[in-house]
């Protein structure tokens, strides 16, 4: 994931899944899983960002659960959320 501070004060996200990772169905599925996860975090973000999120795993390795876990790790790393996954 790469990001910059937002020059216009709004959060924007771009999800990149390359053709070599899988077919169009897989790439769109990745975007459908990631989009709500990231947009639900917008209220938690202290400084708005423009972020580009890369999906690097192939369709054979990636599952929706693994994609969610990776996103949650990113949220913790960026300190957007610390209570995710705790019960």
Summarize this entry quickly:
The chain has about 90 residues and is of the alpha+beta class.
Defining key terms:
single chain, 87 residues, alpha+beta, Ribosomal Protein S5, domain 2, 3-stranded mixed beta sheet, 3 strands, 20% strand
Can you describe what's shown?
The protein is an alpha+beta fold and 87 residues long. It has a single domain (2-77), classed as Ribosomal Protein S5, domain 2, CATH 3.30.230. It is 36% helix and 20% strand. It has helices at residues 24-40, 64-77; strands at 2-5, 12-17, 49-55. It has a three-stranded mixed β-sheet, covered by helices on one side. The longest helix is centred in the middle third of the chain and has 17 residues, at 24-40. The model has no long low-confidence stretch (mean pLDDT 85).
Secondary structure blueprint with pairings:
Blueprint: E1 2-5, E2 12-17, H1 24-40, E3 49-55, H2 64-77
Parallel strand pairs: 2-3
Antiparallel strand pairs: 1-3
Helix pairs in contact: 1-2
The share of residues in helices is 25-40%
CATH topology: Ribosomal Protein S5, domain 2
- Overall strand count: 3
Distance between termini?
27 Å
